[in-house]
Write a structure and sequence with these properties.
heterodimer; A: 16 helices; 0% strand; B: 616 residues; 3 domains; 42% helix
C-alpha cells in the first residue's frame, strides 16, 4: 500500500524533479553553512576549527552586551532603520499611485526608466557621487551655498546631524523607482470596471485612488511592510561603511559595520566568534520582529506571511 | 520512457554540478584561479614531490613540536640540496616556492620585476606568486588560516603581520617557528642589522619574538632618520612664504620655528591675495586625517609623543586625558576658529588634498603631510616649491623649547613561512639573502650603475654632488633620473624594485640617501632637508617612546576588548573637540570620566606590565 506522499511523487514526478535542484542548492548553500552559527557559543581555535573549538556558553554575548559599543550600535541601527522605513516606505507607493494615474504612455515610460536608473548604480559609485555632489568647495552643493551665502559650506560628511538625512534620502532617491515596480504590477491588476463604476458614481481622481487603488494594493503593502520590519536590524553595510568618517562615527556605527570591523577588518586580529555572536543576536531580533509584525498584521487585516 | 530517463539524468547532472562548489580546488577565489592553474602545471614538472605527497599516509594534525621535528626530518635532501649559509645559489636542484603578497601600486608586474627575477636567478629557486588587493590581503590570509591552512602558500610575504596573529597562527601550527632556522642559517641578515645605527641583530630578534618564545617570521627594518621625524610635517608653499617675507633660513635649514610665527604667517595669508585672483580664497593650512595634525601641533604642549601611551622614567602614562593634551586641543580649535585650518582636513582623503594643491588656481599656503612626495618635479606646482618646517615651540615659548615627534624604528615581520613549505631551510635562506644589505638596497633603489651611482663614481664627485651626511663620497649615492637613464623613481609605477616588500633591512646611510631624486637642481634643497632632519632628531626624546609591545594572549584579549573601543573614542573625541562638537571647557570632565568608565586605568596597568616585562 503506497502512502499518499509516494503516490503524489509518482504522479507528479516531473514537478518534484524540478524541486530537487533548488532543494539541494538551499541545503548546501543555505542550511549547511548555518551550522557555523555554533561559533557564537564557542571560543574559536584556529587549530580545532569551528566544530572542534571549545564551548564557552553565552560568553561572546556577555562580551557584546557589556561592550562600550553595544548601546551605540544598537541605537544607531534601530534609529537609521526606523527613520529609513518611515521616510522611505511610503515613497514608492505614492510614486506608483501617481504614475498609475498618468495616461500618456511615452511620458510614463520615460519617467519609469529615469527613476529606475539610479538602482543600477553600485554602492561605491553612489557614495562617490554623494561625496562629489556635496563637496563644500567643488560640489554642486558647495558652489550654490557659496553663491547664495558668500561663505564656504560645511562638510556634510563631517556633520553627525547630516548623516541620517544624507543616508536615508540618497537611499530613497536610488530605490524608489525600482521599489515602485511591485506596486505598479499590483495596480495593473485592478479591474478597469471598478474605476468606471467609481467615475459613474462621481468619484474624483483622488477618491478613486483612495477607494479603489489603495485597497487593491493593500495586501502587497502589508507584505512589504512585514518584510522590511523583519530586517529592521539588517541595515545595509556597504553604504554606511563608505560614508563613515571620524566625525559621524558616533551616529553611523551600526551592527553590520561593527561586525565587519571585529570579524574581518582587523588585519589579522579577527574575532570570528564574537562577530558571529553579534550577527546571531541581530538575526534573532529580526526573526522576533518578523513574527510579531506578522502576527499583528494577521490580527488587524486578512493579510499575513503565514 | 526515453524522455523520462533523460530528464532524470539531466536533473542528477545539475545536482552533481552543485557539489562542484564543495570540491577542494573550488575553494580558491576566482582571481587566484590563474595562479592556481599555473601552480598545477609547475607541480607536474616535479613528479618526485607529488609522489612523495601521495605516499604519505593521512594522519591527524600533529602538535607543533612534533610537526617541527617532522619538518626537519623531511628536509629536502632527497629533492634539493640546500647550500651552506651565505652561499649562492641557495639550492642545487629544482625547488619552487609559492608566495602570497599584497598588490603594490608602484610595482608594474611582479613576474617581470627586476628584483623578483634577480632573486630567482641568484637563489636558484623558482617563485610562484598569488597577489591580493592590499585591503583584502590580511583578510584572505586570516580566512585561509581559519579554513585549516591547506590553501596557504609556502611564504606569506609583504604586509606586516602583528605579533598577536603571528603567535596565534604559530601556536596552531599554521606558520613555522623559525627560531632554530634563524640561528643556524641566517648569514646576511645579522650583518645587515649589526650595521644599523639604532638597532642590532639581537634587538631585532627580541622585538619580533612572541611571548611564547617563538619567532614566527624573519625581521625587516628601516631606520631612516627622515622617516623617524617626518610625522606631522607642515609643507609650505615657498613663493607665498617669500612674499610674506618669512623665508629666512638658518644654518639648520629652518625658517618658521614657533607657533607665534606660524600664526603670524597664517594671518598674513588670510588677509592677503597671494594668488591674485581678487578673492579671499587663500587657505592657510589643509591636510587629510588627524594623525599629521596631532603630530604637528600636540607635541609642543605634551613634550612627548602623541601616542596614547608614553613612558616617564619607567612609568607608563596616558596622553589623551592630560591637561597638556587639552591645551593642544584648544590650539587646534583656535586654528579652525580663526579660519587658518581647513575643516576638510578631518574628512578628505589624500587624493582630494592633492587635487586642491594642484588646482589651476593655487589656494593652499601649507599642508600637512609627512613629505611633499605627493607632488613631483612635473606637477604644478612642483615639489621643489615646498619646504617643511621643524617642530614648533608653543605659543609664547622660546624657540629653543621644542619637542619633535619621534617614530621609533621597530623590527617587524612581513616574511612568514607556512606549514605547507616543503623546504623551510631554503625559505629562510632566501629571506636571509633577500634582507642582505645589497638586496635591501636593490629593493629600495634598484641596481648600481643602472638606477643609481655612488658619488665617487660620478663626474665631479663629492665636490659637485655634496656629501650631506658626512660619511664620505663612497657612502653617498645619487639616484638616476629618467634624463640620466634611470628606470624608476620612488613613489611612481616602476618595475625595478618592490618598495621594501619581502625581507628588508635599510640602515641609516642607505635609507637617508635614498630619500629624494638628487638631480643637480634639487640638490641644494636636499642639503637643507638633511640639516633639518638632523636638527629635528636632536629635538626628540626617544626614551619616552613606548612602541613594539609584545602582548600575551590575555593582554591581547584586553587590548582588543578594552583598549580598541577606548582608542576609537579618543580619536573620535579629538575630532569633535577640535570641530566644536564637544566643548573643550564644558565637556572635558565628562570625556575623562568616560575614559575611566571604559577602563583606561585598568588597561594602563596592562601596558605597564608589558613595559616592565620587556624593558623594565
Amino acid at each position: 500500500m503506497l502512502s499518499k506522499f509516494t503516490r503524489a511523487i509518482r504522479r507528479h514526478w516531473q514537478l518534484y524533479l524540478f524541486l530537487l535542484l533548488p532543494a539541494v542548492y538551499i541545503g548546501i548553500f543555505a542550511y549547511y553553512p548555518m551550522t557555523g552559527v555554533q561559533l557564537a557559543f564557542k571560543k574559536f581555535d584556529y587549530n580545532l576549527g569551528i566544530w572542534g573549538s571549545p564551548w564557552v556558553g553565552f560568553e561572546q554575548f556577555r562580551k557584546f552586551f557589556s561592550n562600550y559599543m553595544f548601546e551605540r550600535v544598537m541605537t544607531n541601527t534601530i534609529r537609521i532603520s526606523v527613520l529609513g522605513t518611515i521616510a522611505g516606505f511610503p515613497v514608492p507607493i505614492i510614486f506608483a499611485l501617481c504614475l498609475n494615474c498618468v495616461f500618456h504612455l511615452r511620458y510614463k515610460r520615460t519617467v519609469q526608466t529615469i527613476t529606475y536608473m539610479p538602482h543600477f548604480i553600485s554602492t561605491v559609485v553612489m557614495v562617490g557621487i554623494l561625496k562629489q555632489f556635496f563637496h563644500p568647495r567643488v560640489g554642486v552643493y558647495g558652489i550654490f551655498y557659496t553663491m547664495f551665502t558668500g561663505a564656504t559650506a560645511g562638510d556634510l560628511f563631517a556633520s553627525p546631524s547630516a548623516f541620517d538625512p544624507l543616508y536615508i534620502f540618497s537611499g530613497i532617491w536610488q530605490g524608489f523607482g525600482w521599489g515602485s515596480i511591485l506596486y505598479l504590477a499590483a495596480l495593473s491588476g485592478v479591474s478597469p470596471e471598478l474605476h468606471e463604476a467609481a467615475m459613474i458614481d462621481g468619484a474624483t481622481r483622488f477618491q478613486r485612488v483612495h477607494y479603489v487603488d489603495i485597497p487593491a494594493i493593500m495586501p502587497t503593502i502589508i507584505i512589504t511592510l512585514i518584510m522590511s520590519i523583519g530586517s529592521l536590524l539588517g541595515v545595509g553595510f556597504e553604504k554606511i561603511f563608505l560614508m563613515q568618517t571620524d566625525m559621524n562615527m558616533r551616529v553611523s556605527e551600526v551592527i553590520s559595520t561593527y561586525v565587519y570591523k571585529r570579524g574581518l577588518g582587523s588585519g589579522g586580529n579577527s574575532d570570528y566568534a564574537f562577530s558571529t555572536a553579534v550577527g546571531l543576536f541581530n538575526n534573532v531580533v529580526n526573526l522576533i520582529l518578523l513574527i510579531t509584525v506578522n502576527k499583528i498584521a494577521s490580527m488587524v487585516s486578512e493579510t499575513s506571511l503565514w | 520512457m526515453n524522455k523520462k530517463i533523460l530528464a532524470i539524468l539531466l536533473a542528477c547532472l545539475m545536482v552533481l554540478a552543485l557539489f562542484a562548489g564543495c570540491s577542494k580546488s573550488g575553494t580558491k577565489t576566482d582571481d587566484s584561479s590563474a595562479a592556481t592553474e599555473k601552480k598545477e602545471e609547475t607541480k607536474k614538472e616535479e613528479p618526485k614531490k607529488e609522489e612523495k605527497k601521495k605516499e604519505e599516509p593521512k594522519k591527524e594534525e600533529p602538535k607543533k613540536e612534533e610537526k617541527k621535528e617532522e619538518k626537519k626530518e623531511e628536509a629536502p635532501a632527497d629533492a634539493v640540496e640546500v647550500t651552506a649559509p651565505g652561499q649562492l645559489p641557495i639550492v642545487n636542484g629544482d625547488l619552487t616556492l609559492s608566495f602570497a603578497m599584497p598588490l603594490n601600486a608602484t610595482v608594474e608586474d611582479r613576474e617581470t620585476n627586476a628584483l623578483w627575477v634577480y632573486l630567482q636567478e641568484e637563489s636558484g629557486i623558482k617563485f610562484e606568486l598569488e597577489e591580493y588587493a592590499g585591503d583584502e590581503y590580511h583578510t584572505k590570509v586570516d580566512l585561509m588560516m581559519a579554513a585549516g591552512g591547506a590553501d596557504l602558500p609556502d611564504i606569506l610575504c609583504g604586509g606586516s603581520f602583528g605579533v598577536t596573529p603571528r603567535t596565534t597562527w604559530g601556536q596552531a601550527g599554521f606558520i613555522l617557528d623559525l627560531k632554530d632556522y634563524i640561528n643556524e642559517l641566517c648569514f646576511y641578515l645579522p650583518m645587515a642589522f649589526n650595521n644599523c645605527m639604532y638597532t642590532d641583530w639581537d634587538t631585532a630578534l627580541a622585538q619580533i619574538t612572541s611571548y611564547d618564545g617563538g619567532i614566527y617570521g624573519l625581521p625587516s627594518y628601516a631606520e631612516s632618520p627622515n622617516d623617524r621625524v617626518s610625522n606631522g610635517r607642515i609643507n609650505f608653499y615657498m613663493p607665498w612664504v617669500e612674499k610674506a617675507g618669512m623665508a629666512n633660513f638658518d644654518d639648520n635649514g629652518e625658517f618658521i620655528k614657533t607657533a607665534d610665527q606660524l600664526l603670524e604667517y597664517y594671518e598674513i595669508v588670510k588677509t592677503s591675495d597671494f594668488n591674485g585672483n581678487g578673492k579671499a580664497d587663500e587657505i592657510p593650512l589643509t591636510g587629510y586625517g588627524t594623525w599629521n595634525l596631532k603630530c604637528a601641533f600636540l607635541p609642543m604642549f605634551l613634550k612627548h609623543n602623541v601616542d596614547n601611551f608614553w613612558v616617564d622614567n619607567g612609568v607608563v602614562k596616558t596622553t589623551a586625558d592630560s591637561d597638556e593634551y587639552r591645551e593642544g586641543l584648544r590650539f587646534i580649535k583656535g586654528l579652525l576658529d580663526k579660519g587658518y585650518l581647513d575643516p576638510l582636513t578631518f574628512t578628505q582623503d589624500h587624493a582630494a588634498m592633492t587635487a586642491m594643491i594642484t588646482a589651476e588656481t593655487m589656494t593652499i599656503a601649507s599642508y600637512l603631510r609627512i613629505s611633499a612626495s605627493n607632488l613631483n618635479l612635473t606637477t604644478v606646482p612642483p615639489s621643489t616649491d615646498f619646504e617643511w618646517c621643524s617642530a614648533l615651540a608653543a605659543p609664547g615659548a622660546d624657540e629653543s623649547d621644542r619637542f619633535q615627534y619621534y617614530g621609533k624604528a621597530i623590527a617587524y615581520t612581513q616574511y612568514v613561512v607556512t606549514k605547507n613549505c616543503e623546504s623551510p631551510e631554503a625559505a629562510v635562506r632566501l629571506g636571509d639573502f633577500w634582507g642582505s644589505e645589497d638586496v635591501s638596497f636593490i629593493n629600495n633603489c634598484g641596481f648600481e650603475g643602472i638606477d643609481w651611482d655612488a658619488v665617487s663614481d660620478l663626474e665631479g664627485g663629492a665636490d659637485k654632488w655634496g656629501n650631506t651626511w658626512g660619511w664620505g663620497p663612497e657612502d653617498t649615492y645619487v639616484r638616476r633620473t629618467a634624463e640620466t637613464g634611470g628606470r624608476a623613481s620612488w613613489g611612481t609605477m616602476q618595475n625595478v624594485w618592490m618598495g621594501n616588500q619581502g625581507v628588508s633591512c635599510l640602515n641609516y646611510d642607505w635609507a637617508t640617501q635614498g630619500g629624494a631624486d638628487k638631480t643637480l637642481d634639487t640638490w641644494p634643497m636636499s642639503v637643507r632637508n638633511a640639516n633639518r632632519i638632523l636638527y629635528n632628531i636632536t629635538l626628540s626624546n626617544q626614551d619616552n617612546v613606548f612602541a613594539g609591545q609584545v602582548y600575551t594572549a590575555e593582554e591581547a584579549d584586553m587590548n582588543a576588548n578594552v583598549y580598541t573601543p577606548i582608542a576609537t573614542y579618543i580619536e573620535e573625541c579629538f575630532t569633535r573637540f577640535c570641530m566644536g562638537d564637544l566643548d573643550i571647557e564644558k565637556d572635558w570632565d565628562n570625556y575623562v570620566n568616560e575614559l575611566k568608565k571604559m577602563g583606561l586605568e585598568d588597561y594602563t596597568a596592562v601596558e605597564q606590565a608589558v613595559y616592565t616585562r620587556m624593558f623594565g
